[in-house]
Amino acid sequence: MKSRYKLVVTFFIVCVFFIVNSFTVFAATGFSKKVIHPENQVGEGEALNLLMKPGQKQQVEVEIENYGDKETTVLVSLSGARTNGSGVIEYSKSDFKKDKTMEYDLSDVVKVPEEVKVPAKGKAMLVLDISMPDVEFDGIITGGIQLMEKGQEENKEKSAAAINNKMAFLFGVTLFNNQKEVQPDFTLRKAYAGQENYRNAMLVDIANTQPMIANLRTLNVDITNKGKKDVLYTRKKTDISMAPNTLMTFPISLNGELMQAGEYTAHVVLKGYGKEWKWDQDFTVTDEQADKFNQSDVYVVQERGINIKLVITIVVSVLVVIIVIYMIYRYITKKKVSKKTSKKRKK
């Protein structure tokens, strides 16, 4: 019993040692940030939510503290909020699109330096320069600011097993002139064929046309042949959030099937705020598009297995080579025979 007790105690001490040591290393090499809220901050939380006047200019500071023994450089990246294909708002840098109804992106009104140098065991200030539009607007301008220790990009390429104590932080920034309620509205911008993660899909671009964060209950999309009722492909999504004045490119998977050229109709129903938005939009998939997407869809290629066209091409090429070799062989053989025959006649 005593030996078991000693073993348990020893194991516990070792675990505590590694945990404490991990925190020590983390604390000795990382950095932290503290958003300093000005008087016009609205609400609780770390994110900046600032009520500002039209044309107002303001500087807001973020304190960055370096725990390491060497000077560090913190990279600063500012991005307007966007909506991804799953109906989730992205506050970090992305390729998701804004809608043409967006009047002001966060980068239009907030300027930040590309980087901030922080001395060893010291602090430095990141300064946000905010310049509000001269004309008052309803709704919000929103996005995020990411802080990442320089060198983080290179570390991402290293082995996942490597210990990496570098840090990255993201905090939101929201600016507004008033707190008037904005009425939600949406529109279907486009329906078309494409791919999502290298898989064939039908896509619909839905726009949140208002300067508000929209929280929707359901989105349902059915794809049919034009003029037909039978549903070919369908997708339903619940609990959707959309950033102000942004596009959500919503994919409807073909479930590994070959894309077929033809005319289609997208039937879209969006529900939320006690309302319902409905759209029907026709679109065409050309032969060229279908071939292009089928060639690049890795799942379609795998499921098709053997590429018949490629096999036929190889077989024909091999046969041609064999025939050519055979003809050359016959020609050389005949030449040799004719030489022997002519020599015998001379004798």
TrEMBL record:
Keywords: Membrane, Signal, Transmembrane, Transmembrane helix. InterPro entries: WxLIP_HBD, WxLIP_PGBD. The chain crosses the membrane at residues 310-329. Residues 31-147 form the WxL Interacting Protein peptidoglycan binding domain. It comes from the Bacteria. Residues 160-295 form the WxL Interacting Protein host binding domain. Pfam families: WxLIP_HBD (PF11797), WxLIP_PGBD (PF06030). Residues 1-27 form the signal peptide. This is Uncharacterized protein. It comes from Vagococcus martis.
